[in-house]
Amino acid sequence: MFISALLSSLPSPFEDAVRSVAGMGFTHVDVVALAERPAAHLEALADTGLLVSCGGIGKGLPDDWTLDAPALDLRHLAIAHIKSQIADAARLGATHVYLTAGLDGSPDGLLRFGESCALLADYAAGRMVRLCVEPIPGRALPSAASVLEMLDRLNHDHLALLIDVGHCLISREDPAEVVRRAGKRLGYVHLDDNDGVGDLHWPLLTGKLMEQTLAAFLKELKPHGYDGALTLELNPQNPPTALSDGKRLLERLLG
Fold first, then answer.
1. Domain count across the chain
2. Which domain covers residue 50, as residue numbers?
3. Taking a C-beta distance cutoff of 8 angstroms, is the pair 82, 91 a contact?
4. In 3D, which of 183, 132, 138, 181 has the Cα closest to residue 161?
5. Crossing angle of helices 241-254 and 211-221, rounded to 10°
6. Where are the alpha helices (DSSP H) in 155-240?
7. CATH classification of the domain holding 41
8. Predicted confidence (pLDDT) per residue in 152-193, tens digit
9. Segment 20-45, tens digit of pLDDT
10. Residue 154 buriedness (CB in 10 A; 0-12 / 13-18 / 19+)
């Protein structure tokens, strides 16, 4: 396992954030995938030698371009745009991408979302990228359990769960138990903290997250075959040192 930093955790332009993260000793970063990426981004990554681990997709679309839209043409527009973002992440060398569900939690809405995810997962797999679904409290898939239920129903080899430990604090789920239940369907990991109510993305161990909970979660990952990134996803309003502090904490807990 290795530690990555989501670049949006810093309030800096992409190029400055890349240099800052490299200066903290990170070897990997996560990015927001783009349909069109400026050449300056590529140069910054090349200059620092940072490796891109994962890309967030489905961002920056018009409000009605959703993967669960009742109108087929709008779903097709969303899928086409997200495919271009997946292609961007693949060109950067990412092994994973992730998206979140919309707001339509009806059976039909979840069916449409699942079908869209399956199409995108096939497209991503053709580029050696695994598509993950991240649960977010307040959306159609608010918990890890709800995402795993969808994955059970779809039974798609290229779809996986992204577990966000901060989100587990809100949905009252034990992160270690989620790992055990997910097994090989665990695709990616985000780490952050909060007050158990809001998705605040605080630094680790500054809210409801206890060190023993985090340690138990990390210990559970390897026996279940997870050898990927542990990505710090923090609010950019936190002090810049929050990333480096989180990195040191994880290194200590990993031994």
1. 1
2. 2-254
3. no
4. 132
5. 60
6. 165-171, 175-182, 211-221
7. 3.20.20.150
8. 999 999 999 999 999 999 999 999 999 999 999 999 999 999
9. 999 999 999 999 999 999 999 999 99
10. middle
